[in-house]
What we know:
Number of domains of chain A: 2
CATH superfamily of the largest domain in chain A: NADH-ubiquinone/plastoquinone oxidoreductase chain 6, subunit NuoJ
Helix content of chain B: 55-70%
Strand content of chain A: under 5%
Order of helices and strands of chain B: HHHEEEEHHHHHHHHH
Strand order of the largest sheet of chain B: 1-4
Number of helices of chain A: 6
Largest sheet of chain A: none
CATH architecture of the largest domain in chain A: Up-down Bundle
Helix content of chain A: over 70%
Number of domains of chain B: 1
Distance between the termini of chain A: 59 Å
Radius of gyration of chain B: 21 Å
Radius of gyration of chain A: 20 Å
Order of helices and strands of chain A: HHHHHH
Largest sheet of chain B: 2 strands, antiparallel
Number of helices of chain B: 12
CATH class of the largest domain in chain A: Mainly Alpha
Structural class of chain A: mainly alpha
Structural class of chain B: mainly alpha
Oligomer: heterodimer
Shape of chain B: globular
Strand content of chain B: under 5%
Number of strands of chain B: 4
Number of strands of chain A: 0
Amino acid sequence: MVTLVFYLAAAVAVGSALVAVSHRSPVVNVLSLVVTFFCVAVNYALLGASFLAAAQILVYAGAILVLFLFVVMLLNAPELPQAIDPRPIQRWLGAAAAAATALAGILLVVAWRVTPPVAGPGGDAAALGRLLVGPYLFAFELIAVLLLAALVGAYVLVKRKH
Amino acid sequence: MWAELAVTAIKLVVAAVALLSSVVVMVWVERRGAAFIQDRLGPNRVGPLGLLQPVIDAVKLFFKEDVTPATVNRGLYFLAPMISMFVALATFIVIPFGSAKGVELFGVPFGDFIVAGDLEVGILFLLAIGSLGVYGIVLAGWSSNNKYSLLGGLRSSAQLISYELSMTLAVLGVLLATGSLHLGDVVSHQAGALWRWNAVPQVLGFVTFVIAVFAETNRLPFDLAEAETELVAGYHVEYSSMKFAAFFMSEYMNMATAAALIVTLFLGGWTLPGLHLEGWLGLAVSVGVFLAKVAFFLWLFVWVRWSLPRFRYDQLMEIGWKGLLPLATLNIVWVGVAMTLGWL
């Protein structure tokens, strides 16, 4: 049952990610990204990381992508025409790189039998909190400073116009 | 195994039926309440006191012509009401609504309280799924291909994001005091005395949360997304018949969930100081206490709607960012200080 849900969510995640980069309508792109994030959150929940799953939906699907959608709708971005392909080389390079990464992942697991690290029990909020203010305290505080810098930067950029 | 599945199924059905019947009751309360506040009679012809009016309303909506305008984006136009309904139905299931000490069904004990879906991160689940609700409104506005709808959708997305921030920060104070994301723990932490209810020590958080919830449910004075005087009907201008009813019903279900959440987080949920009953009697009484508290806040929604005028858009943003956000932050600072000093 869990395996079935996992493969279903994984397949939908990959499929909607493909739609997100290939569909011509910007609104559909954003929406399929929402579906991707939702399916990734389902897989987090299956791994027992319920806090991460909820945070993924709350932050990415529920807040950041709403802002994306807001901007797309506000600018009224038109659907892209089909024929024009200004960067054919980059497109092929991107596809090749993606394929190579996928192949490397499969080889790692199948041929060289690298076992991926399995998340231990305790993916809940309390365990995560203890990790953040324990071993990773410095990185945690650093991110806070980085976000503050971004906030100040945004403020300065807005202020300059007036 | 089968008994447990059956009990879970019964809990889910009870929660869904309770939520849907709250819509029926609220339609009547809203219409009669509006009439009462405006000193007129209101619908009083169908059944005693007009109690059957919601039934007539529902039948009317069913038999209305279902128009799909030619220029809409068909896929998203049909998807939008479904998202709204899904979100409204899914958020309610994690709310615990009664004490169940010593209650068994088919040999399966209920645990300490009755809840449809007992999640360890209950409150986060509710906030996460609830945050997806904005897509229903935004997509309805965009896919209708109508400038009024689009304006309504845009306003609503900005509004919901702004107020979600203050709402979540207000919840954070409660979670700090409880030390758990589990809604059952939140309630049992408040049991015992009136001053233990989170609304007393965290009155700032309580006020912030209640105001933010009005904005999150798109109710007046924050119903800028509909604003019929300027936007016709906002995001659902182009919806008719049952697709319109889906938006309408999800608004009322969100109201019920919001009222239940206020009660659970800040007013002790199903508990009442001095009430220690067990078994089926305890279950019935505690559910009654919970419903009474929820009913008060549902009436508050109606009361405010028919008493206050709508805010202007700039006022709405100002209240959200310059009023509620500092208040919610202040509340967190207060809770932190009080907990460090051992007052909470």
